[in-house]
Amino acid sequence: MLEIKNLVVQIEDNRILNGLDLTVSDGEVADIMGPNGSGKSTLSYVIAGKEDYEVLDGEILLDGENVLEMEADARAAAGIFLAFQYPLEIPGVGTMTFLKAAMNAQRKARGEPELTTPELIKSVNAAGETLEIKRDFLKRALNVGFSGGEKKRMEILQMALLQPRICILDETDSGLDIDALRIVSEGVNKLRDEKRAFLVITHYQRLLNYIVPDTVHVMSAGRIVKTGGKELALELEANGYADYRGPATEAA
Amino acid sequence: MAADRTPAETGLAALFDRLKGSLPGDVAVREGALAGFAERGLPHRRVEEFKYTDLRALLREAPPFAERPGPADLAMAFNYGRAFTDVGAAHLTIANGHVATELTETGAMPAGIEVVPLNAALAEGHPLLAQLGAVELARLNPVYELNTAFMADGAVIHVPAGVAVAQPVHLRFVNTGLATFATATRVLVVVEAGASLVLLESHEGPDGLAYQTNGVVEMVVGDGATVQHVRLNAEGRDAVALSTLTAKLGADVTFASLNMVTGTTLSRHQVYVQFSGENTTGRIDGANLLGGRQHADTTLVVDHAVPHCTSREMHKTVLDGDATGVFQGKIIVRPHAQKTDGGMKSDALLLSEGATMNNKPELEIFADDVVCGHGATCGALDEDLLFYLKSRGLPQPEAESLLLQAFLGQALEFVEHEGVRDALIARVEAWLASRG
Predict the structure, then answer these.
(1) pTM, full prediction
(2) A70: domain CATH number?
């Protein structure tokens, strides 16, 4: 279970999150929607452990343990996974090398034995099939020369391999055509189970046709201002965010 | 050399007077070179090519040249020679600047090539020695002149026309001893038309020993030949290494040279490549891993004297501690060298506040139909990339190592010989692991 309590965050004297409270239970798919600049991406980065942000107050608890004291890699080993809105290209680092390094680093941190290369290849091929990732891609440098859709599929592939406790999807639908959206959503849905929680950050309701949420939260000016079921997303799609806009904030 | 001779300059003159009678070959050539050197003395920072590496200030004294080592020293030297042992190469060991026949498997050199120790070649007046100094631009370089005056041993390697040498030839330079010393070695490599050679050089010695090496490798590459050259400076941390590579390339040649530096407190690697035949491709790459107070200088001159040639340089430097890196690269395109395609890049990653990189790329273009470019970057590791890797579970040191390997890999990938490339990658991994 992920619990966020009274989270206050700023970057360069710019207050982005203003006492945000949010709980995502095991097995729950929670969606966060909100206007530009409401702090959605900041929330995802702060949970994952990006260091540019200053946390002034509050807690982020994963199964009761405060992760704010942990480095990003320790949070990953504890089960937090962020699917980036803009996955980074890493020239010179082969995709397989990267996947092996990531999986074994997490296993090592948890005291589990490292994967052998054949075991890794087997897992990668199995996960890659669902996501329709060409094997050829795994030989290339990570994300280099990949299209937007291919990068997003690679994010979900990593998620499938790392088997996190809580999956944060930051605008995973942006830049996807209909086919890619379906493939990515199927990949995500396949990972749903009663233990794993999802925090899905979206701009548009469209993704929610494929990844059906249990709860929808509206975020504005760095706080959750309304919570409802999946019908709330449809209402927002029809009426916009006009009812929820708080005082203007500058940052994303 | 005027009245203001430094102790090192005075010492070099005295050493020469003492040694000249015993050095092999034509003493007049040596005297001419020393006179040329003495006229200007050790280069200092007001000499443009030595702006960042002031040898007059850095070389305080002229240590005596090493004698040919005895059996005990040789056995010790051999212990330092660990590089390129697993790549299936034929080894020629040069200990303290002298070919160590006891440890040299000269008989095991690949079939079809000739390898002669330089002192023998000089003494007998080997006909190929006429090809020394083939790259004119290098001849007036003071480090090269000093080498010409003092060169004691080394090798002449002759690959006759059409001979494709599959097995790499490894020049294993090892240094050992208890007191400070100097070496001057010269290697002449003549690869005739249509022949091919993989040439490895490694330079190793113990930490804590202040020795100075001056090594010159000269290559003359015939039409249609292929040369792959990899040089590793893994000298001890208190050593000074000055080195010069010259290459005169004929037509339709494929040439690649990579220099990796992990050792020495002070090093300067000078490269002079002259394109003398059309449709030739040449690459000069570098991978430098520096820490502590190490200073490593790479100075290149790429001289396009004929049309339709391609040159590429990919120089990578990683600096930690208070290390200083220098990259000076000059591409000259002479008036008739039309259709030249030249590209030079030097990138540095600074891992600490105290590290310094000096990048100076230059283009001198006198032809009007060419494509030439250069780029130089200097910076820290990308924080966003580090975060991405950490968010996948890689701890900071592993994330840094992965990015540094990728960074250096962009130069190492040009080493075509897989075993040699793997040996260099293993050096990178060992260096990264030793950062702690």
Answers:
(1) 0.91
(2) 3.40.50.300
